[in-house]
């Protein structure tokens, strides 16, 4: 079974995330970046072309930048495509978590939910972290 991870965003966010993700993960999965609004091509056409190129039995995980954004909205109609998960609010912990998932079986909705929760937990207000000194710090 093969899996493709699609990073889709306004402008170049997806390109930068793909580059960073491949640096950290060593390029272990098929990752595609779709950067919208860089040319005059309609976003809907970009999405349709990308999705049409993916085999029907492929596990596809689409990470978009914003739920209410136009990029996510154009992927919305693919939410019922078999073996396809569309997740908004992409960030590096989420993309890395998805990339590191085994590809020996299709990823489940419950696993997607767990990866989303882990990514949410990675968002931290560092200013509120309290450091306690112990004997080893002296």
TrEMBL record:
<dbReference type="InterPro" id="IPR036662">
    <property type="entry name" value="PTS_EIIA_man-typ_sf"/>
</dbReference>
<dbReference type="GO" id="GO:0016740">
    <property type="term" value="F:transferase activity"/>
</dbReference>
<dbReference type="GO" id="GO:0009401">
    <property type="term" value="P:phosphoenolpyruvate-dependent sugar phosphotransferase system"/>
</dbReference>
<dbReference type="InterPro" id="IPR051471">
    <property type="entry name" value="Bacterial_PTS_sugar_comp"/>
</dbReference>
<dbReference type="Pfam" id="PF03610">
    <property type="entry name" value="EIIA-man"/>
</dbReference>
<feature type="domain" description="PTS EIIA type-4">
    <location>
        <begin position="2"/>
        <end position="123"/>
    </location>
</feature>
<protein>
    <submittedName>
        <fullName>PTS system, mannose-specific IIA component</fullName>
        <ecNumber>2.7.1.69</ecNumber>
    </submittedName>
</protein>
<keyword id="KW-0808">Transferase</keyword>
<dbReference type="InterPro" id="IPR004701">
    <property type="entry name" value="PTS_EIIA_man-typ"/>
</dbReference>
<dbReference type="GO" id="GO:0016020">
    <property type="term" value="C:membrane"/>
</dbReference>
